[in-house]
Write a structure and sequence with these properties.
alpha/beta; 2 domains; 6-stranded mixed beta sheet; 45% helix; 11% strand
Amino acid sequence: MKFVDPKNDIAFKKIFGDSTKTEILISFLNAVLELPSPIASLTIATPYQTPQIEELKYTSLDVKAVDNNGREFIVEMQVEGNEKFGKRALYYLAKSYVGQIKIAEDYEKLKPAYFVGILNFNMFDGDNCLTRHIFINQETENQDLKDFEFNFIELKKFNKSDQELTNIVDKWLFFLKNAGNIEIIPSAINEPALLEAFDSADQLKWSKKELEAFDYWSGKEGDKKAQLQTAQNKGRAEGMEKGRAEGMEKGMEKGKKELALEIAVNCIKQGLEITTIANITGLTDQEIECLQS
């Protein structure tokens, strides 16, 4: 088998955003979230549809869902680090939460909203690959405001091999990080939803249009990395050039200074006055007096 990389935006949405295979998203969310009650069923608000290449830049590539209790979930894959990603997560969840009711409707109708960010870069301090962010009362350390919750998965911090997978969270993180690099499903993975996820990632099950979209987006991500690398290399080259120029300038200044001091010493030996020597060499009176002592 050859699996697509779930970190690719098109692959991610096809796997987790398929309204005919909601058990995949349900299993994933129940595994990574500490919900007071598990998700029994859900509706995907933005079902996956094969995107046309020319429409890709307008395509929403996160997955949104509402469960049977009205709770809202936003799941997003983010491959490249971005200092604005945290603010974007706050904005997305706040907008989703506010959109639950209309003006003048009862606030009691508002249901909890959860954000799950899957990151292919490190964003927070610490070694935990899965972190939960909630509102805490600083005085009592109680979670008095419970409707907002942010969860982030930092895949680079997950380093378990297929032989070390002991729980459902490990298995989902292994799938997200490694599915695109393996050809055999690890023997430790036997959960139906995870097997279904691998089936959805099987390239042989993809249509020609889907593979074209996948390749297009992979190329686009590759272009971004290449542009970033070019910018970094350019920055280093410019920095080195600037350093060389500054070094040459400093060297020339040092050489001029040494020459002026040498000339001043010869002038002193010839008995010239300090004022005259200063005019010849550009040294200060104090510098010349130091040479006389």
